[in-house]
Amino acid sequence: TAEILSEEQRYIQKKVDTLAVNTITKDQDGIYLDSIRLKKLAPILQRELVRAAYQLLSKEVYTLDFNQVERVLELVNSSQTGQRVNLKKNYWVEKAFDKLIFFRKIRKTPTATLPLNQKVSLPDSGLTIESEILDRKKLPVRIKSANEQRAFLDYEKFSEIPMIRTWRPGDKFRPLGMEGTKKLSDFFTDLKVPRHFRENIP
């Protein structure tokens, strides 16, 4: 009986390893599990792929228990993007559109002053921001950024040295050429930026 069980386990593991090639991806921000592909599989394979994704992130010998896995699978059937489950320690999984994102939650709060006509590095985000005061008279009547990496701000509207920080609930901005304001949360949603990414964007 033990030999049969061992043989079945080896078969399941081989099947999971094959499925993982097209179902699980990885980058510096976390592990991604394709929820659309996952939903089409048998429950036993769903559970094993969830465990495989978690182990790929955590490197732990002891993986998730049955209840933890079931909580993750509940996200697969949820229509609400942004929902999260705390697995254990600082490890989380979040539903992000057609993906489940497994990540370790390390809150980064890049906050820095932005001295004018200087460069500022934000080590946590890997970004460098440079500011420059321009003569408005030398700019065209209708200002338009040449690319997404450049923005024009009205210097006269600043009452103190500008600060760089992460997004906070309620933050708004006025897109150039658009009347009225737009919430950053809505902007992130339009761009399909996962919830946990937003918390670390300066």
Task: From the structure above, extract its key features.
alpha+beta; two-stranded antiparallel ribbon; 6 helices; 11 strands; 32% helix; elongated
Layout of secondary structure:
Layout: H1 2-23, E1 24-27, E2 30-34, H2 35-39, H3 43-58, H4 66-76, E3 84-88, E4 91-96, E5 99-104, E6 112-113, E7 119-122, E8 127-130, E9 163-164, E10 172-173, E11 182-183, H5 184-190, H6 195-198
Antiparallel strand pairs: 1-2, 2-5, 3-4, 4-5, 6-9, 7-8, 10-11
Helix pairs in contact: 1-3, 3-4
Describe this structure in words.
- The chain contains 6 helices and 11 strands.
- By secondary structure, the protein is an alpha+beta fold.
- The strands form 4 sheets. It has a 5-stranded antiparallel beta sheet. Strands 6-9 form a two-stranded antiparallel sheet. A two-stranded antiparallel ribbon has the order 7-8.
- Strand 3 (84-88) and strand 4 (91-96) form a beta hairpin.
- It starts with a helix and ends with a helix.
Summarize the structure.
With 202 residues, the protein is α+β, with helices and mostly antiparallel strands. The chain has helices spanning 2-23, 35-39, 43-58, 66-76, 184-190, 195-198, and strands at residues 24-27, 30-34, 84-88, 91-96, 99-104, 112-113, 119-122, 127-130, 163-164, 172-173, 182-183.
